[in-house]
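Lecture notes, unit on protein representations.

Consider one protein chain, 312 amino acids long.
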Amino acid sequence: MHSIISISYLSKTYEGGFQALKDVSLDIRRGEILALLGPNGAGKTTLISIICGIVNASAGTVTVDGFDNVKQAHSARERIGLVPQELTLGAFETVWDTLCFSRGLFGKKPNPALLERVLRDLTLWEKRHEMLMHLSGGMRRRVLIAKALVHEPVILFLDEPTAGVDVELRKDMWELVARLRQSGVTIILTTHYIEEAEAIADRVGVINQGQLLVVDDKQTLMHKLGKRQLAVELTAPVATLPAALTRFNLELAEEGSRLVYTYDPNNTHTGVDELMKAIAATGLIIKDMQTIKTSLEEIFVNLVKGKERNTA
């Protein structure tokens, strides 16, 4: 799959010496959904702002659909729709006029049918003649999304799009994202809702302290960095592990009523069969068993903690 955005050795140092990005390189595939995860201050918004031409990089290059985002800024920017975190909208404009103005900024001819479709998709059609100052926070968030879409971008950035919004808007937004993806739009989102990234993203990137720690297909990432656990519930608790079980990677849980075995599911030899035989040989009676997979959230937390330990 060809890249629609190529980022090479991107760095950003602000006045005062704070380095927000450190040699970030990333190729974003055409038509994919990429989720960027990271704690507050990790560099997610700075990265998006540089790609969109809002912030200047200290070093490195960005190409958007083949256009250098500095030397060919207009061509690069018109391919991008951006939904920022901040609810920055003119208070006295109507929804319809706001979208018409946004489309015109990119030199696009009026297209009432397109605007109607976008407004209906975002449940804004009945609000089209209302002034923005009279809309709720959730409705203003919908208008920001509509503004990002009215010039028909091939790339859409969603910077913390569901932070602080209602469940209904969140559901509508992800349904819209799915439709846009089907139409060929490339979508990059930053989010704190890791379960959403796990549900809709094709690839996941983790940023911390200005560095891109990892970026990979979601399933590949979970396959490579995830662990598997076998939880064995006993009919009667034990105070300590029997000597015959100490060679296994086991821990006692729930006051000795559960044995938790951690193993790598990618290995041909997992040791599960030997563990079962060893438990039977000790005379312990198994009441129930459950396999537990590592979640994307656990992988994210472990990556960030590992980076913080390495830089401490």
